[in-house]
Structures are given as structure tokens and as C-alpha cells.
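Appendix B: complex inputs.
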Amino acid sequence: MASAFFANWRQNIIYIGFLVIFVVFAATLADKGFLNPNNLLNIVRQTAMIAVMAIAMTFVLSAGEIDLSVGAVAGLSTVTVAMAIAVGGPVVGVIAGLATGLAVGMFNGWLTTRVGIPSFLTTLAMMGIAKGVAMWISATAAVPILSPGYSWLFGGGNVGPVPVLLLWMVILGAIGHIVLRRTGFGRRVLATGGGETAARYSGIDTKAIKFKVLVISSSAAALAGMLYAGRLQSGRFQLGEGDELSVIAAAVLGGTSLFGGRGTVIGTIVGALMIGLINNGLILMGLEFSQQLIARGAIIILAVALSQKRT
Amino acid sequence: MIPNAAAVRMTGISKAFGGVRALDDVSLEILPGEVHALLGGNGAGKSTILKILNGVHRPDQGTIEVGGVPLTTHTPEASRAAGIAMNYQEMSLVPTLTVAQNIFLTREWRDGIGFIDDNEAERRAAEIFAMLEVFVDPKAIVADLGAGQKQLTEIAKAISQDAKVLVLDEPSTALAVSDVERLFVFLRKLKAKGIAVIYVSHRMDEIARIADRATILRDGRHVITAPLAELPIDTMIEHIVGKRSMGLSDVARIQATKGEVLLELKDVSGAHKPEHISLTLHRGEVLGLAGLLGSGRSSLARAVAGIDPIASGEIRIKGRAVAIRKPSDAIAAGVALVPEARATQGIIPAHSVASNMILAVIGRLSKAGFVDTKAANSLTDTQIDRLKVKTASRDHAVATLSGGNQQKVVIGKWLATDPEILILDEPTAGIDIGSKSEIIRLVRELAASGKAIIMISSELSELLTACDRILVMADGRIHQDLPREALDDPEVSADDLAHRLQAAEQRLQIEIQKALAVQEI
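Resulting structure:
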């Protein structure tokens, strides 16, 4: 049916857009090394952390909530991981990083579902708190990581020609996709965001679902922080700063609704890659940082506008 | 399950919300294999007691037994585990999921590995619809469905649970007559299997046909439980309404004097529906639109009110062609629409009565950008007074009012725009019978005061009571234009109002079915 095709076209615009931008950059920036395999792998390396957070954000948005604290939590976790590695080695570091994410997520979830503060405000406040804690405990200094094993596994390494970061992204993406599409939990997340009253009347504990997606989101942010720390072999509070915008944009570009009820993990990953692609292309074009910001904002608005379902 | 136990026994149930007593020592017993009607006006406590049974609310006092086993945990999960399934009036569907996903929500079919199997769910959903002999696409997204299809999905969801007790809350409001028939056939099959059905409806004719026994509640109290044989419709209405005897047949049909033509439609078509509509409406006239869901009645109303602008044709008001492209054009031309979905299109539930009442005339009440509070309050008080809205004050949230009084607020809001043409789309849907006749009386009074009125209602007895002329619609077109008198059976005495109304209702029903038959050829 024509209308079904049109609806699908709207939904699939992200894939078309990704291809169009890729082809345009390939044609115009070929002589500047855009198509160089190293450059393409770099795009993946730079995108992986955004993608990891955006996979979890897909669940948060699908449940009708939002998490603005992901960038700051990633920054905080780089610091806690680096400090813990310095004290007790890589295993302690990984535990500290995950504990950071769980603690923040449970606090966000508790405030949102039990105290009743909208997640928009909870996580906005948490953004400041996480950043403040990170600055405080690190005394605003970078904390070096002197564990090659950790750095290899969390961000720096390669398996043959394949960056470890790409593996993280693909594995987490596959898990996220299956959980959202094919498990009872994923269905409950979509139901909670699509119609909270209906979900509750159907016997879904919507508060528990919201709590869980916020914990997942903070945990993913902490993991992204661990990847930042591994890749840059240090923890510092500035890492991940401002990522929340790219993360939310990636999910929305991919076709996830800001109003809840609709989400796709694969779309989100393509959305994240598209943002990485745009960043890379603008740098290769030789644009100044100020110009990059403007161009990136304009492209994202255009893409999101096209991906919105008109009613 | 204990043999020979009642399917449900609720004893001495009381429940208060913020000091307001919704239920006071109510007992309810449902036997296996019976269809038990639960009746009562709005605010009688029907939905509260059902929500308690279903675990949405916890009773303040009283005990519940299901199949002889006490129910001590009050959550939807516990009630479902005890074998209770319930449909809600469009409240238990998630609009962003498909029909099949909704039907099996939280009870998804799994494949061999344990992942959700939507294909299997779609097959099972199709089976349920086939058993009901109706067609709903299991793959369709619920938000894209019409009201009737949503209701069928709700019913399918409730019956898919293989429950011992099936609660149907107003299952037929959006269903076509033929679908209601099929639902009844199915309910009789369930009865034969020993399943208990609790059936809530405002439609007495349905109750009379399907129910074995009925329990009537009024003002949160139990009034009577009796076999249907001992409850003729008149008696039921008496128990529901109590002392206030306001049956429909009481509404005097004063013949309003017809004035000049106010509204004229010439070959009007919408983007989809309606199609090629031509009609004239006089001052002082009440014109009824009869037809089933999807017949184009509401589309026609929305076209004239500028919500869905017309695609072709001409709208003339007082002899002059007017371009109505958006609601404000219609308001300026003196047209007001009291819309179908009160809760979403009519009121802002959390706002006060006053703030709702002035919504359509804020511009007129503002001076230099500030709303003139005095004028707004006096306007609100006038409407509250005129329409006899029962509210503690003009500052109370509309959500705290009963359905009938909420509808009066919507009518008041539109009367405030001082329209000459008033369109009412299902103005009595879901409100109790006392308020219904009040609203119909009001419609007659407004016509007598010189307004031209178009009224849409699925309850034919109301159309017949309120209207001077009735258009029968099907598939977006007008099939019949009948003066009210044409539907009267001359053989029934004019003094026997109740029977006369009943006879007219049968005739109108036949006309609607005829229009459908024409459409199918």
C-alpha cells in the first residue's frame, strides 16, 4: 500500500540519510583520505562510546523517560576506574566503574519512581552532581592508567584489523536489539512508554520498568566511561562532557520516539555512526570548531525533522 | 477451586477516595455459568467495585473470594492469577503496539529459545477473532484502528486469558449491531462452559437480552440483585434512577417553530468521508444523524466545525457561502461542536470549571491581553446556573465532576461562544440516564430558543426524543431524510409514550439496516 510505503520511508530515512551522507563525503572528501580504512575505523572508534550509551538510551526513551546525566556519569566513571586501578589493579577498576554506574542509576531510578521527580529533572541535577564528584575526587587532574591489559580490552586494542571498540559496539548492539525486540522485558519497556495506564492495567509494574531502564542507562554510561578511560589511558572529568546531546540525537535520528513507545536499537547505532560520520567529514573539510558546531546542529535538526512521523 | 462455590463473592466492600465514599458495604455474588449484569448510573460505584475485583484498587473493608478461595493480595497480577479477566473502556491498550502484541501483553508467546514469537501471537489473535467471527488485522498498530476495532481488540484481550470470570465493561459502545450479536453468541458459549460473565452496560435492551441476573448499585450502595425475569426495563430504570423519575419518555416534544434556513450544505465531501452531502437546517430545528460507527456522522460534524476541512462542495450559512478551513472560522461563523470524545476533545480535566468554560472565548474576555476575571466568573456562573451543572464551585477541577456534569461544562463552553448552529456528537455517551434526559431536554430548549441543532447519537431512543428530522447515514452518504413523525406507528396509541418510542426505534433501526444493505450492493 502506498501509505504503508510512505510510513516505512519515514522510518527508514535514517538508512537512506546515512548512505547519502556517506556517498557525498566519499565523493567530495576522497582526496582528503575519507575513504582510507584507517579514517573509517577512526570514525567507529570515536562513535563507539556514543553508541554504547545510545543503545541504553533507546530503552530509556522507549519507556517514556530521559537520561541527561549519561555524559557526566561517563566522565565520573573514567575517574573512579582510573583511581581504583591505581589502588587495586584492573579488576578492582572494572568493579569500581560498574558500581559507579549502578549507584547513580539506582539513585536516578529511586528519585524518579519513588520520590516522583520527573526523570528530566532528576538526571539534569545528576549531571551536575556527577561532574562535581568527578572534579572533587580527582582534584580536577587527569588520573593515569598504567595497565596495558585494561587499556587493550577497554578501548585501545585491536583483534587483527578490528578495533575492540567495534566489537563492544556490535556485541552490545546485538544484545540490546534482541532484548528490546524479543524479550518480555523489552516488550514491557515499549508498553510502558506507549501507554503507561494501559500497561499498568495489563499487570506491568511500570515503576519497576522505569527504574530498570535508568539503571541500565547509567551502567551503560559507566561502561562508556571505562572505554574512554581505556582508549586514552587516563581518567579525567571532562571526558564524555556534552555527550548526552549526541546520544539522544543518535537515538532519535534512528527512529526512537522522544514520547515513548517506539524504539529501535539498530536505528540508534546507525544514528550514532551518522553523527560520527558528520563530525569526521566536517573536520576533514577543514571547518573551524565553531563552524562544525553550527553545521552539525543544522544537519541533526534536518535529519530528525525528516524522521518524524507526520500526523 | 472449591466445588459449588460462587465464581465471585464480594462481601461488605467499602471504599473511599479522599473522604468521598465510592462504595458503602456492597456485596456481590456471581455464579459460575451466568451472565450477571451490573447496573447503575454514573457514580453508582460500578467501575470502583470492578477495579477492586480486578486488583487496581484495594478495598478499605470487606472480603473477596474467587471460586471459594479468598483473594488477599490486591494487584492486577493476583486477580489475573485467580482467573479474573477484564476489558476496560479502551484503557488497557497500548496505542504504539500491534493488536496481537496488545492481546498477549505480559503473556507473550515464546519460541523454542524463549524469545517472544510475534508470528505465533498473530496466528492466535486471528484465531480468536475468527471464533468471534469478526475481522481485525492482528498486525495493525492499535493507534491506527477505529473505535469499534479497538473495542474488539479489548474484548479479544480479555477472552484470550481463558479466565473463569470475564468482566466486560461497556463492551458494545462502539460496536456495530452485527458485532454485538456475535459477541452475544460467543458469551452464550462461555456460559455453557461454566464461565461467569459480569456485564456492564448502559443499554437496557442489551441487558434484557443477554443477562441472567442483575445487580443494581446506586450512590455506592447495593440496591437489588434479582433474576432478569423479575426486572422489566421500567423497574430497572426505577432502581437505577431512584426517586428521580426521569425516563426519556417524559421529555415533552414541543414542536419548535421552524425559522429561516441557517445552514446549507451543497454536495459537501471530505478527504475520505463524508461523500456528497447536501442538507438544509432551519432555525429552531433539531436534526438527527443516525447510522452506525463509520457511517460518516462524525466526519460530517468535523467538516462543518472546520476540524477536517472539506475537500469539495459548499457550506452556506444564512444564505452566504463561507470558507471554513479551521475551527476558528467555524466559531466566527456561529458554529460550535460539542465533540465526541469528551475527555480528550471536550475538556481539560485538571483545569477548573471556570477555566474550561471560558476556553473558547478567551479572546472576547481579554482586555489588553489580560483575562477579565470578573467577566469570566460571571459568564461561568451564568452557565453553571443555566445548565444546572452540579459542582462544588466554579474553581473545582472538571475531573471531579460526574460524566453528565462534565458534558454540561462542554456544552456551556460552546454556548458561551453564542453559536447559532450547535452540533452535538454523542452528547450522552457514557453518562447516566438521569443526566441523559436532562441533556436531551436542554437540546429541545436550545432549539426552542432559536438555535439550529445537529445531534449525533448511537442511542436511537434519544435521537427520536430529541429530533424533528432524522438523516440516516451509511458509508459516508445520506440514505434517508425522515421527518420524526414518519417513524411513528399510527397503530400505537399516542398516549402510550414508552411503547410509541419503542415502535419508532424499531422502525429507525430497520431504516439503518436498509441503508447498510444498499451500501453492500
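Chain B has three domains: 8-248, 256-334+420-520, 350-418.
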